[in-house]
Write a structure and sequence with these properties.
Blueprint: E1 13-17, E2 29-33, E3 39-44, H1 52-63, E4 68-75, H2 81-99, E5 106-113, H3 121-133, H4 139-145, E6 154-162, E7 165-174, E8 187-192, H5 198-210, E9 227-232, H6 243-265, E10 273-281, H7 284-295, H8 298-306, H9 311-319, E11 331-334, E12 337-341, E13 344-345, H10 351-358, E14 362-368, E15 374-381, H11 385-392
Helix pairs in contact: 1-2, 2-3, 5-6, 7-9
Length: 396
């Protein structure tokens, strides 16, 4: 369920502070505490210019069991060289000194403007209050604290009924622009009180991310800072196995999918959310190539904004996706309206039917390539005047 008051996860505590790193008068710093014995899995951006906190978080995750996650908004600490690495490590040191853990047990995360040095004084001033304020029911506050251009917090909770008892899964995410995760600016944190080994947790996360955060695009830009973290506290004592594991993984995938959809719905300036569903491909790679080419076409996305059934733009995007096609076998639908068949406009297509579908706030563009059984789905949004305005004025 989407909610402003996500369900607490036993043993997992959070706190926020108005540190003034970039924003004034709003929380912009979040600390998350993981109980001893937790398992942690994570995936990060594949951008070659990955941010300093991504580098440090990977290093720390490889050598120690995390106890704290530290997230700041407003400054990405990316493109900052050695000074950025030093600053990221100093923020971890500040948490360790106050919380009484090893520096390597802290994972840092940042989101915001790229190329500006991260000021350390706000972290040092805020840290005592953060550690003191930690509590299990602060998920909603944390979701607000990690926002940048987001217009609303993104939270999701569910209870999974398993044979050994119920387990909770709660997650938050931020992201609105620079979204085409490849593991934008996207951060996501999900926790459960299930007991799961770290290797199993990592495999579960990678599967969940593949069909959710790695299947969305707002503008085709992969951030330097993307990260998704999954924590299993084990506090419930329930260890999903067999059919229970399948149910748990389905629930985890649903939580990640819901958060990913909220990111697309809140895309910078977005007014419509559209699923690009490709079927009949020779391979999953071909299906994703076609889906992303259509989803990221500026001409398609501006037509989505206008509600203009200019289907030639969709046809052209499919044709330039770099995938071998039998043109006569390709079929394209707007919602339930068949618009393309046998290499051209379907004889039964009427423009008023296409316009009816494109006037909706959420719908699907379905593309059957007619060459195999592979399929893919990518969530996208329209490209509006406001997207340009938001990003033109981002640093002002």
């Amino acid at each position: 369920m989407i909610t402003d008051n996500p369900l607490p996860v036993s043993g997992f505590r959070l706190a926020v502070a108005e540190a003034g790193i970039r924003y004034q008068g709003r929380p912009d710093l979040c600390l998350m505490e993981l109980p001893e014995g937790s398992a942690t899995a994570a995936v990060f951006t594949r951008n070659r210019f990955c941010a300093a906190p991504v580098i440090v978080a990977r290093e720390h995750l490889a050598k120690d069991a995390p106890r704290y996650l530290l997230i700041n908004a407003g400054n990405a600490n990316a493109g900052t060289g050695d000074e950025g690495l030093r600053a990221a490590r100093e923020t971890c040191r500040a948490v360790a000194a106050m919380a009484g853990c090893a520096m390597s047990q802290v994972l840092p995360f940042s989101t915001g403007v790229i190329g500006e040095d991260l000021p350390l004084t706000p972290f040092q001033h805020a840290m005592p209050g953060l550690v003191q304020d930690l509590r299990e029911d602060a998920w909603g506050e944390a979701a607000r604290a990690i926002m940048t251009t987001d217009t609303r917090p993104k939270c999701w909770s569910t209870v999974v009924e398993l044979s050994a008892g119920p387990v909770v899964i709660t997650g938050i995410a931020k992201g609105s622009g620079m979204i085409r995760p490849d593991m934008a600016t996207m951060l996501a944190y999900v926790a459960t009180d299930a007991r799961i080994a770290r290797d199993d947790l990592q495999a579960m996360l990678e599967t969940a991310v593949r069909g959710s955060f790695n299947s969305i695009t707002v503008d085709g830009d992969t951030s330097t800072n993307d990260a998704c973290v999954l924590v299993a506290t084990g506090a419930s004592g329930v260890a999903p196995a067999g059919d229970d594991r399948v149910r748990f993984e389905q629930a985890l995938g649903a939580v990640c999918f819901a958060l990913a959809r909220e990111i697309v719905r809140d895309g910078e300036g977005a007014t419509r959310t559209v699923d690009i569903e490709v079927s009949g491909a020779r391979s999953a790679e071909d299906a994703r190539a076609v889906a992303y080419t259509v989803a990221e076409s500026p001409l398609v996305k501006t037509a989505l904004f206008a509600g203009d059934p200019n289907w030639g733009r969709i046809l052209a995007a499919v044709g330039r996706a770099g995938v071998a096609l039998d043109i006569a076998a390709v079929r394209i639908w707007l919602g339930d309206v068949l618009i393309v068949s046998n290499g051209g406009r379907d004889p039964g297509y009427r423009e008023e039917d296409g316009a009816r579908v494109m006037a909706e706030k959420e719908y699907a563009i379905r593309i059957d390539l007619g060459r195999g059984t592979a399929q893919a789905r990518v969530m996208t949004c329209d490209l509006s005047y406001d997207y340009v305005k938001i990003n033109a004025e981002y640093r002002s």
